[in-house]
Design a protein that fits this description.
Number of helices: 6
Helix content: 25-40%
Oligomer: single chain
Strand content: 15-25%
Number of strands: 7
Structural class: alpha/beta
């Protein structure tokens, strides 16, 4: 696994989602490296035609790494509702449309769940992280956190579907939590712990 240890001075986050970029930058802060994003290079978003979070994460990281010549870290994440056959899943961002209108997407989910007889309200967030080098070498991992659907949306922090997700064992939505605390327990944090053990051993406790 030695070839997968990250020892560069720069990394590009393969995302145009500013909320996601902020969260990943926060996780990478201890590395003390130059963290850039796809926005800095004015790159278009690649077509995400994978059939899983992991496949889509690799599509993004490999695309940005090849375009910039710099190792790239991508995140593909979404929310899955048991009552909706695990939708929207990998299409979570697409449900929000081109304008990233997550308020509308959350209302759509609520309307669909209201039609379900005896809903369980069970749901889970998934995050796949893919670190890709310009030569195509890559490491892709994923993390998951289970929770319950909550309506109406609550909280002003976070982004995306955070206002309607309460993780198990807690009584606040992701959007109500202190961002630093959310970063420590989220699906993204769980995936990042796996990535650290494989690629950033200097960050391990």
């Amino acid at each position: 696994m030695k070839q997968n240890v990250f020892n560069h001075k720069k990394i590009v986050i393969a995302s145009h989602n500013k909320g996601k970029v902020i969260e990943i930058k926060d996780l990478l802060k201890p590395l003390k490296i130059n963290v850039l994003s796809a926005i800095d290079f004015d790159l278009k978003e690649p077509i995400e035609n994978g059939l899983s979070f992991e496949e889509n994460a690799l599509i993004k990281s490999s695309y940005v790494s090849k375009k910039t010549g710099i190792p790239s870290l991508s995140d593909d994440s979404g929310i899955c509702f048991s009552d909706l056959d695990n939708e929207p899943g990998i299409y979570s961002a697409r449900w929000a449309g081109e304008n990233k209108d997550f308020k509308s997407a959350m209302h759509k989910i609520n309307e669909l769940i209201k039609k379900i007889k005896n809903p369980s309200y069970s749901c889970f967030f998934v995050c796949a992280l893919s670190l890709c080098w310009p030569d195509g070498n890559n490491v892709t991992v994923s993390g998951q956190i289970k929770g319950k659907f909550s309506w109406p949306p609550k909280g002003k922090n976070g982004f995306g579907y955070d206002p309607i997700f309460i993780p198990l064992k807690y009584n606040q939505t992701f959007a109500e939590m202190n961002p630093k605390f959310k970063h420590s327990i989220s699906h993204r944090a769980l995936a990042f712990k796996k990535l650290i053990s494989l690629c950033f051993p200097s960050l391990e406790n």
